[in-house]
């Protein structure tokens, strides 16, 4: 009789363990989904920031280039 009751208790313990593992995996899945979403938003924000800096540096480089051309023209025409 002891073996049957031990087997029943063991089976219940295994089921409880499996339920706990499933809840743990569901929690990990939720965490990973949030982490992926957060990483995507971070990457997107970083990309937008880099694009903005590139755009502003291009405008600034064009401005410096145009000022240099005007300075050179002015220098040669003044001489």
Q: What this model shows, in words?
A:
There is one protein chain. With 79 residues, the chain is an all-alpha fold. Helices cover 97% and strands 0% of the residues. The chain is built from one helix and no strands. It has one helix spanning 2-78. It is rod-shaped. The relative contact order is 0.04. Residues 1-79 form the F-BAR domain. It holds the Pfam family FCH. Keywords: Coiled coil. It comes from Equus asinus (Donkey). This is F-BAR domain-containing protein.
Radius of gyration: 34 Å
Low-confidence stretches: none
- The whole-number mean of residue pLDDT values reads 81
Shape: rod-shaped
**What percentage of amino acids are in beta strands?**
under 5%
Instruction: Measure the end-to-end span.
Output: 115 Å
- Helical proportion? over 70%
Order of helices and strands, N to C? H
Keywords: Coiled coil
Domain F-BAR: 1-79
Organism: Equus asinus (Donkey)
Protein name: F-BAR domain-containing protein
Quickly list its features:
79 residues, single chain, 97% helix, rod-shaped, 1 helix, mainly alpha
């Amino acid at each position: 009789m002891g073996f049957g009751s031990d087997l029943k208790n063991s089976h219940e313990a295994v089921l409880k363990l499996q339920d706990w593992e499933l809840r743990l995996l569901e929690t990990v899945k939720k965490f990973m989904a949030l982490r992926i979403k957060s990483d995507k938003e971070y990457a997107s924000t970083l990309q937008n920031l880099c694009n903005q800096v590139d755009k502003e540096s291009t405008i600034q480089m064009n401005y410096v280039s145009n000022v240099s051309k005007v300075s050179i023209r002015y220098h040669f025409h003044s001489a």
